[in-house]
Design brief:
Length: 327
């Protein structure tokens, strides 16, 4: 049996929705467990050492752990099936809850780190037990690396399918949980390096200024990542067109369908992680009566909507004078 047009787009370009959701859930759970362990370790080290940059990193990890809760909610609520009030499903909820997570990173991570760094510059405090700080930072780096490898593995597999490089896919993917975990883990690894440098400079010079500057730099890094994530979620919430490669494949799949003579309009809008809605104008083959054409049009919509990656399809008839789209 010939594979439906929408199904081919799903398999070849959007990936398996079920597999993608499962991978995203695993990625978030790994990040959540890792961040809880790291936050506890960093908090312990911050109390013993008095290091401003380690305290900033502790705030960062607690913020990340809290954010993973939002991402778990996003993953769960966005996968709910369509209902009468939400005919295209609840996919956009993923962007709402991921937006909350990004705001949490900005407030609980960036603002706290910068504020504490400034306070440490105004009222310097000595630090000690540097070895404990180094050990905790090293262990944290290993644990963050495990979470980062999981998100990288998922992102790289999806990027390969869409013929994107890794960073391009992370920025463009419709899965906000993958983007959030990847960005937070990358920021965490960079922040650990900054914190270690600040702690070492504090030990070397006996001055707490480098440590305080490290705290501020960690905060600035988190603010940049948070604003990046906020902007990406905003763009998906207001409505974003699917990747041009997905659109080209969908157009070709429609033209390959025996019922379709030409396509004059096609819009694919992302309505959730790995979910699109399809709106188009088509000219059907043959010269049927109006009632028969309507039945064929509804049947074509149903065939497209059968794909797990298509939330809904709405097709209209093309006007005779409208130019055909070229694949």
């Amino acid at each position: 049996m010939e594979e439906p047009a929408g199904e081919r787009v799903s398999h070849d370009l959007l990936g398996s929705k079920t597999t993608g959701e499962s991978e995203s859930l695993t990625t978030v759970l790994v990040a959540f467990v890792v961040n809880i362990l790291i936050a506890l370790a960093k908090s312990f080290a911050a109390v013993l050492t008095g290091s401003a940059s380690i305290l900033a990193e502790a705030a960062h990890s607690w913020a990340d752990a809290g954010n993973e809760v939002f991402l778990l909610i996003a993953n769960r609520r966005s996968s709910r099936p369509p209902d009468d009030l939400h005919p295209l499903g609840h996919g956009r909820e993923a962007y709402v809850w991921s937006l909350f997570a990004a705001l949490g990173l900005f407030v609980a991570g960036a603002a706290v780190s910068i504020t504490h760094g400034i306070q440490s510059l105004v009222t310097p405090e000595p630090a000690d037990d540097f070895v404990i700080g180094y050990v905790v930072l090293a262990v944290s780096f290993v644990l963050e690396g495990i979470s980062f490898l999981q998100s990288t593995r998922q992102a790289r597999a999806e990027a390969r399918t869409l013929e994107r490089d890794l960073i391009e896919h992370v920025l463009a993917t419709s899965d906000p949980t993958l983007r959030a975990v990847f960005a937070e883990d990358a920021a965490a690894l960079s922040g650990l390096v900054i914190a270690a440098a600040g702690l070492f400079a504090h030990q070397l010079t006996g001055s707490s200024i480098p440590d305080a500057v490290g705290s501020i730099l960690v905060g600035v890094l988190l603010a940049y990542v948070a604003l990046l994530l906020i902007n990406r979620n905003r763009r998906f919430l207001v409505g974003q067109e699917a990747d041009p490669r997905v659109r080209a494949a969908a157009l070709q799949a429609l033209l390959d369908a025996p019922e379709v003579a030409r396509v004059t309009y096609l819009r694919l809008e992302i309505v959730g992680p790995r979910m699109i809605s399809v709106i188009g104008d088509v000219d059907l083959t043959g010269d049927d009566s109006e009632s028969h054409v309507a039945v064929r049009l509804r049947a074509l919509e149903a065939k497209i909507s059968a794909s797990p990656a298509v939330a809904g399809a709405v097709l209209s008839l093309s006007a005779p004078d409208e130019p055909a789209l070229e694949p």
